[in-house]
Design brief:
Blueprint (H helix, E strand, L loop, with lengths): L1 H40 L13 E8 L4 H13 L3 E2 L2 E9 L2 H10 L9 E3 L4 H6 L3 H6 L1 E17 H5 L27 E6 L5 H14 L3 H13 L1 E3 L22 E7 H10 L5 E4 L7 E8 L4 H14 L2 H9 L33 H13 L1 E9 L15 H12 L8 E12 L2 E11 L3 E2 L2 E2 H11 L10 H14 L5 E9 L11 H11 L6 E8 L5 H10 L3 E5 L5 H14 L6
Parallel strand pairs: 1-3, 1-4, 6-7, 6-8, 11-12, 11-16, 16-17, 17-18
Antiparallel strand pairs: 2-3, 4-10, 5-8, 5-9, 5-10, 12-13, 14-15
Helix pairs in contact: 1-11, 2-11, 7-12, 8-18, 12-18, 13-14, 15-16, 16-17
Length: 583
Amino acid sequence: MTSGRTGAGSRYRPGRKRRLSTALFALLAAAIAATVLVALGARTISAKPTCVGQTITAQVAVSSEIAPVIQKVATYFNSQRRQVDGRCAAVAVHQVSAATVAAGLARGSAGKLAVNAWVPDSSLWLDVARATPASTRLVQPSGLVLAESPLVIAMPRPAAARMPIFGSSVGWQILAPPSAGGPSRALGLNVQYPDPLQSAAGLAGLIELKRLFGYGRAARGEMATFALNVQVVPPGTGAGSLPSLDAFARPSGATAPVTLTSEQAVVAFDRAHPDQPLAARYPAQGTFQLSYPYVLTTSGGVPLAVAKAFGTALRSSYASAYARYEGFRTGSGAGGAWPASYGLQSAEPHLLRPPGPSQAGKELHAWRVLGLGSRFLAINDVSAAMATPVAPGGPTLEQVLGRTSAAGMKRFPDSTQMGLWAFASHLSGALPYRQLVSIGPLAGPFGVVTRRQAIQHLAATGQTFPHAPAALYGTLLAAYKQMVTGYQPQYVNDIIVLTAGVENDPSDISAATLLRDLHTMVKPNRPVEILMVVFGVPKDLGDLQQIAKATNGKVWPVTSAAQIPQIFYRAFGRRICQPHCPK
């Protein structure tokens, strides 16, 4: 029996030891994990493990690409049950576009969400948010930058391999139009540009492109050329302010898409798509860096104290380590050990000087006005003056300008509203003009074709009246009355005239009468510009310039149809400086 008990005891004790060893190992592992977590995440946090009483939750808005980092720290912070000003402290993290929060704070509210703290994807948004004295007092950076991510120019790797221009050194010019030093259209590059109104990458890139374009009338034209020709891409779902790279990385046909994005977005994409990595280059002139500052956005009370306490947790080495794990650089610029095949580098790239405090607002204004819808009344001169050959035996003025304007129709987006008149003298009874196409969306129907197609056809095949004088002034007065009466505030409302600049109808009003009537009709809250493209240098050019000036418009004398496309973009570029464009 004794031996039996002894045998039983011998069989029992090893199993007990194994269970005890397992339990001790679990306890030891838990202790190690707790020690690591405390060392990483709570080294700078001193808090009671529990608290009693009402919980005050600070609402934190964050850009979604850095949301996993903030949420991880928030989960730990909330588990600590910290006590702040006698209340239990907690934070709730919300993924909200930085552009949305900035606009809301500038208005004095971030929408339905009462935001106590904010992590945007760039300090550029702070300038937008602090647009008023009240919002300047409310929006206060804490001094903490959680993470950084430089901007890179990226292409799908197969497209980059067949594009010599995407070599070891790629400049900002690859995003620009050919007229501003960009690559030839023959290369087939398709610039997919992040919308500057919603994307910090797009906004920062716009600031640098503006620097490359320069200043003045020509530079405004280049900016208009860029804005009207580039493919603007909105942020992707769940991608924060950056467009989704999924569709971008799988181009159809022979297109070679190129975009501006963040280093972190490239790292994240390549990790998730190892079979289709991107080719990335830091701009040769230097790059901007997206920074993720922690910003306090509440005026006081316990929510402010909770937000400040959470800022302490965000300063921990745990938060910094997790940010690097997610592909960000730390606030000091330290990068991860990324594979060299990414085209990225661990060392901080050459950085451009940060934009000035008001620059973001200026470029956003320029982009907004360039993106406003356009409502045009186009007026073509079909008088005898337009029947004059451009050169002996060559096409007439009307044919040259008509073909050029027809070809230029492709530059207008579908959202453009346009109508078409022709003028000479007595084209519609006593009226010197005739409406050929009513004003409406270019993509809309006009009979059996679209309005765009109708205007293109009429402009290209129009006829002149070889014996008809030109009643230009009466036509301009009638056009101005119609555009002011039908003014639409969500559009830029303009009158565009292609003419020989001749006024020779004895029955028409004088230039002095037109100027007098215009001065009485001009309304600051209903601006309508008269923009004239005049072929040659007519004797009445001075009168035409005075007439255009009365409406804050402009006259462009041209001697070649080749000049007209550039004038088109310069006319659009005038939106940037209106109503105080230099004459």
